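Appendix B. Raw example, untouched.
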Amino acid sequence: MLRTNQSFLDRTITFYAQQQRQEDIVVRKYTKGQNLYDQGIASTKVMVISEGIVKCYFTEANDKEYIVEFLSTGEIVGEIESIRHIPSLCSIQAMTDVTAYAFSKAYFRELLERDITWSNMLLDVMAQRIVHTSSRASYQQLYSLEHSLHRLLEIQSQQDIAIKKEDMAAYLGISVRSLNRELKKFLE
């Protein structure tokens, strides 16, 4: 549920310390509730989260949100859009105060071309996301809502994070009303 990648963060910190031009990678801070990216809007940066938790979500045509995943330390965002030269596929919002390393797109692409370790690490991240998304989709098909909610509540407790009901419902792909019914069952 909460994805992290310490080795990717470590590599980013190394790049930050070694950069020749101070504008290639800058540190940005976001407050809880602030968007790092907005769905459909072009971004100028690729970011690696240093501290904090963000939610990655789609807003559908009917204004319903669907949370794809929660990301934290060491996770990269905006890389697909940079590689494909497209606007943001989804919105990314800070659930806590967030600090991120923001790469200029030009520097990010330069690193992809000249640093095989960085490129391989990024390939690994993308492969992990595909596996995670596939596993989550099959999990949601195979297990009951009650089971998925129980797992989400366990992970929330283990990670010591508070997730709003709206976000829990969006992550589970259900309405808040359905979530309330399921939560009521837990209390009975």
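End of appendix B.
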